[in-house]
Amino acid sequence: MKKKVALVVSTPIIYNAFYRKHIDCLREKYDIYLISNFNEDECLIKDLPLYHINIERKPSFFKDLETLFKLIKIFKKEKFDIVHTTTPKAGLLAQIAAYISKIKIRLHYFTGQVWANKSGYKRQILKYIDKIIGMLPTHILVDSFSQKDFLIAENIVKNSKIDVLGQGSISGVNLNKFYSQDKKNLKISLSIPEDNFVFLYLGRLNKDKGVLDLLEAFEQVHNQYPNITLLLVGKDEENLVPFIEKNKFFNSSIFYYKFTNIPEKFMATADVFCLPSYREGFGTVIIEAAACGTPSIGSNIYGISDAILDKETGLLFEVGNSNDLAVKMISLINDRQFLDYLSSNGKNRVNTYFDENVVSELLVSYYENFNKM
User: What's the rounded mean pLDDT across residues 67-88?
Assistant: First the structure.
């Protein structure tokens, strides 16, 4: 009889983005159940048993308490062998429920800390929540070595029960989807002049992602190098688009796309990917871009410093320093030979360490160790 596994996340987006390959591999040996707020988004995994739970992102004492009791009821009914959680709210509630329900194997996957760049009471409250999450599981995974060191240094988790799979990354990269393509043809398809140097940001638009720093840096660079383009792709979470539209280069050199289901096209089009984030667990978009032959410039913070090997697969700049970011952008415009060097190294590194098949095999092997307990 297969062991039963509950995968608990706050929104099905997490399954879609990070767990599809994992689930394909795990279901050969385990019975997988998905527990999430299925009202929030479509789940692309259709043929597994689902439990809908209203996991609210924002704190709500009574709603969270109701969710906790529902989780306990499900766990006691199904008698799962393993409860595997990802995302903070799902991790907090499901790990408490799993502990109360006496689930033997409780695994949580940390993918970044929302309190890392905050201060005051908000930082302390959010940090305490992560500390609770760190105490309850029997096992903890984290998607980068620098994040592991950060969590240990901040006394969130004990070194004895935290691990990183391979070289990091929660899911790796689908190399059949993300690969090098003809930049000339892609630029034409997006109405970008063939000779323009293209910078790309792809992800959620918010201040924590450093989007405003990127706009400031791009403007500095554009004043010296007018034949450049910036593509911004992603959901506007903090109403930044009206601010972006006020930029004097908007719709001439800066273009915004609120959604794409073909991120690989944009990544293959760009000459350089930019991730000026203030907090990041790893930065999967960086290795996806690298698989497309596009090196990255990222802020020198934990997580990104694992995804980018500075001066080997990309460049790191001082977080929050738009002047330093502009300098790094200019350096790659001026040195195409170095750009090609970064591109080649980045692609080789992804092929070696971050193929999604390799990462999923590592997770299955990690699960297999539970059988020895």
Answer: 97
What's the pLDDT score for residue 373? 61
Crossing angle of helices 120-135 and 88-100, rounded to 10°: 40
Report which of 200, 223, 230 is spatially closest to residue 298, judged by C-alpha positions: 200
User: Rounded to an integer, what distance in angstroms lies between the CA atom of residue 350 and that of residue 313?
Assistant: 10
In the numeric block, which tokens belong to residue 23?
């689930």
Average pLDDT value for residue range 286-315: 98
**Spatial distance between the Cα atoms of 296 and 79, rounded to a whole number of angstroms:** 45
Whether the CA torsion 127, 129, 130, 134 is positive or negative: it is: positive
Residue range 164-170: average pLDDT?
Answer: 96
Neighbours of 4 (CB within 10 A): 16
CA nearest to 181, candidates 294, 279, 337, 43: 294
Residues 315, 331: Cα–Cα separation, whole Å: 10
**Nearest in space to 298 (alpha carbons), one of 199, 219, 373, 372:** 199
Percentage of residues of the chain with pLDDT beyond 70 = 100
- Which amino acid is present at 50? L
C-alpha torsion angle, residues 13, 241, 201, 292 (rounded to 10): 60
**Residue recorded with tokens 């989007």:** 211
The yes-or-no verdict on residue 34 having pLDDT over 70 is: yes
Tell me: the pLDDT tens digits for 320-373? 999 999 999 999 999 999 999 999 999 999 999 999 999 999 999 999 998 776
- In this structure, the number of other CB atoms found within 10 A of the CB of residue 42 comes to 9
Name the nearest CA neighbour of 213 among 190, 242, 244: 244
Token duo for residue 107: 């695994």
Q: How far are the Cα atoms of 19, 86, 170, 373 from residue 28, in angstroms, in the given order?
A: 14, 21, 20, 21
- The alpha carbons of the chain give a radius of gyration, in whole angstroms, of 21
